Amino acid sequence: MVSCVRLNCLGDVHVDRRPECEALSIPAKHSIFAQAPTPLSERIELPVVVQRLPGSVPEWQTPAKKKAYMGPMSPWCNQDATFLHLGVDPKREDFMNGGYSFGFAPMGWQDDVGTVIVARKDKKPLLPEHVAALTKYCREGLEDYFQECAEGNMTKERVLKEITKAKFETYYKKWQERQEDETARTQVSPYEI
User: Fold this and answer.
1) Which of 13, 40, 107, 185 is most buried, judging by how many CB atoms fall within 10 Å of its CB?
2) How far out from the chain centre does Cα 70 lie?
């Protein structure tokens, strides 16, 4: 069995009261490991693979479940999973064809994502704290850089200088310092496992 993380959609978090990231174990022969790692995770030398949890979106599309959720977005929305798929190849612009483009996730990861499983491609343990920090790094730590680049105020090369193992390690330490939970504040770095 491999320790990985269930990254929950809005409905699972706000209606079913599940944590955003929760520990999960899957068999080492799970189909998730046949996938390619997300480009951003490869760039920071922490290759992760992401797979939708079967049935998550249809469950949240039922009238009863939709009614139970009162948020501004769909209950099956999972922006953290989308941000894990940001493209980081400055020469690749395949967004309109469903592929990766610099600063954008493929269309298939924009809508109807639902809850997902996140695992390390190398099958080493991946902890909820690691995924929580990684998703915040993608959303909070990098979003402004990609936006500045899209507006023509920053080069792609400059953005890429922010997407490195060293930058994520620094972000992880600062993320830990902000956590109230003792486990999160003291959790080993994903690079030390």
Assistant:
1) 40
2) 23
**Domain segments of the chain: what residues?**
2-192
Residue holding tokens 């798929």?
85
Euclidean distance between the first and the last CA atom of the chain, given in angstroms as a whole number: 16
* Helix (H) or strand (E) segment spanning residue 6: strand 2-7
Residue type, 56: S
Is 14:69 a contact under the CB 8 Å cutoff? Answer: yes
DSSP state letter for 137 = I
Q: Determine the Cα–Cα distance for residues 119 and 1; give it in Å rounded to an integer.
A: 12
Instruction: In whole angstroms, give the CA distance from residue 51 to residue 115.
Output: 9
Residue 163 DSSP symbol: S
Task: Give the DSSP letter of residue 154.
Answer: S
For 13-55, write each residue's pLDDT tens digit.
Answer: 999 999 999 999 999 999 999 999 999 999 999 999 999 999 9
